[in-house]
Every structure is written in structure tokens, then in C-alpha cells.
Amino acid sequence: MVQHTKFYELMGVEPTATPEELKKAYRRRALQLHPDKRGNSPEAQDEFTTMKNAYDVLSDPRQREIYDATGEDGLKMVNGFGEMSMEEMMAAAIGALSSMGGGAKFCLLFSITAVCAVLLLVPILWCLRVDQTVDWSWVDVFIPMWILDSIYLCATCCSVVSKDSPVDENGEPVGAPPPPSTYSRVLSKRYTIVTIATVVLTLSMASLLLLKALLFVATQILIAMKLQGSINISCLAVLSPYLALEGMLLLQKAIAAYSIYASVAATATNDKPYT
């Protein structure tokens, strides 16, 4: 049962409403609350904006799931991660936690405890094996790491699969700028470079995320096999997946830095007054 119903009440629908019902409700509410029909008062504009924000959340399956589970505080914490201050993050986390049911709180606490226990097991088992307190194989010693890696890979796969473009009430993608004309692409070399860099960054965030996770896990597998003596390769070869991962991260940062520099330079050139 959905505990947070404020957005549903703003839209005038039930928590079990389908996407089609949400679209119809949005069109109806937009006609009712449009500021032009209500004197363009600040109150009318705020009410319309609040309703539009509720629809934007409920029309996105991922945002809707987060809202149903944690409410508005959970949305703020997820969407504002990295941009909010520590105090704001703590306030949002406490608000989201307090709005969760007893069962959800227990599951969250149990999950955090289990993850912490597995993390503590990793150095403990390594120390026991190095001190020869136990004679387990290194593959067995790495079992806690394999568990964490499995969770990491599953979360990465889910993150890659769920990266969908936002859509409007008509199901059309929104937020994407119109493609430049062929003429402008040919004439503007700087714009082409910036566009390519932006596309590479966007694709790398989605398509290379899983590759990075696989390289990280492959490094651990090779280390375990090297310690066990199952493979006879140099340490440099063992760390080659990790070195490739670091190279990818460095290349991404270089492309991002150049993209920002080119964008700033283009903006400064456009804003420069003609003499």
C-alpha cells in the first residue's frame, strides 16, 4: 500500500493510476489550474507549478517508485545527491527514513548491517590467511569480495538498463536540444568537437559503466589467482585491468575538461562585443 499520496491527490487520481490515466488527469488539471485562467496571480502560478512537478514525478516510473517508498524527502536526497550540503542531505535522509514503514526500516537496517559485516570480513580473512591462521585457498578468502562484487554488478546492470530518456505527457523525449543543421556542423569545427565530446561523455556514462565494473572485478579475480599460484603471469599483467580502468577514467576527465573549456571559450567569443 502506498503511504505517500500527496502527489496523487494533487493530480486527482488514485495511487494505482496507470500512465494513461495520469496523462488524462494532467490535461484536465492543467486546464483547471492554468495561471492564464486564474488571473496570473503568484498563488495560481505556484499551484500550477506544484501540480506540474507532481506529474513529472509520477510519469517517470523510477521517480514514482522512489516517491511511493520514501516520499518527497527521498526524492530530494536521490535527485540532489552531490549538489546538496551535508546538512540538507542529513535532513532529507532523516525525513525519508521517518516516512518509511516499520517493515521498510527493518529491511534497510538489516541490509546496512549485512553489508557492514561483509566489509569487515574482507580484511579479517585476509589477515588470517597471511598469518597462516587458516589454510584456506585465496579464492575462498575472497568470498566476501565475490558477494560484494555480485551486488555491485547487479546494481550496475540495473542502472544501465534503467537509463531512459525523460518524456513529456505525450510520450515524446524532452530536454534534448534540437540537432544542428548540416551547414552549421560543417562551418563550426569547434561546435563539432564539443558535440562529439558531449556525445562521448553521455554514451560512456551509460555504455562503459558496466565495462568499468567488469574491469574492477577482473582485477580482483586475477589477484586471487596470482596469490593462489593458479596463473604464472607478472604483477603488471595482473593489474592490467585496473590500469585500463584508470586510463578510461583519466580519458573521461580529459574529455570533460576539454568540453567545458571549449564551451566557455565559445560563450566568451559569442559574448564579445564587435568593434
TrEMBL record:
Pfam families (UniProt xref): DnaJ
Taxonomic superkingdom: Eukaryota
Bilayer topology term: Lipid-anchor
Keywords, comma-separated and alphabetical: Chaperone, Lipoprotein, Membrane, Palmitate, Transmembrane, Transmembrane helix
Location(s) in or outside the cell: Membrane
PROSITE patterns linked: DNAJ_1, DNAJ_2
GO cellular component: cytoplasm; membrane
Residue span(s) of domain J: 6-71
Segments traversing the membrane: 106-126, 191-211, 231-251
Name the UniProt record assigns to this protein: J domain-containing protein
